[in-house]
Amino acid sequence: MKVFSQDLDSFAEAFGGDTEQQKFYECRLWCLHLASKRKTCFAESRVRRIVDTNLQSLLRNCLSADKSAARDATYTVLNYAAEGLSLVHQHIAEAMNPLMEDLVDSDTVKNLTRIQDCVETLTMAMRSPNKPQRRKWVSLLVKLLVGGSVRTGPAICRLNMLWLADDSPKKTYEEALHQLRKFEASASPDLQEDLQYLICSG
Q1: Neighbours of 139 (CB within 10 A)
Q2: Does 5 score more than 80 pLDDT?
Q3: In the chain, what are the domain boundaries?
Q4: Most confidently predicted of 11-15, 20-24, 130-134
Q5: CB atoms within 10 A of CB 65
Q6: Do residues 40 and 85 lie in contact, with contact meaning Cβ atoms separated by under 8 Å?
Q7: pTM assigned to the model
């Protein structure tokens, strides 16, 4: 999944001679590569100083009231998350959790596409966020699962992955496990089986 296509004959042709937009694109592409754990050639401390401004700008745009701008920014942040360094994942989790919480609390149905974008982005950055960030994400996933707002299979799969990323999931996600136990009683037999596995593995 790449926002920045490199299959064009030339940047100049792609931007129709708009040198300002071309330069902006090339700077963004360079920052994306710099933030990649596979492509960067600088120490993380230097990457932080260079990439922070660009990434923070993108994360602010994820909050934009302009849905098109917010979606484009979120999609670009997803590219950062896909191959990003740990420090990049930390920034993303710090911004995406509150955004996802606002979207869930305001109108889950109306905001479902943007919520799914947040989930995909956070999935990419799963192991780097700290424990409070992971706990918040688990809480939001459980809320979506209990509310029937997301497909159960992928949601439980992501919860399982978060369980595995924690050294003491039963303690870390105590409140979420409590909610899942309550939800289990009213769930379908197939879902009960999946929930039981999740609860027991916690």
Answers
A1: 17
A2: no
A3: 1-99, 130-202
A4: 130-134
A5: 6
A6: yes
A7: 0.77
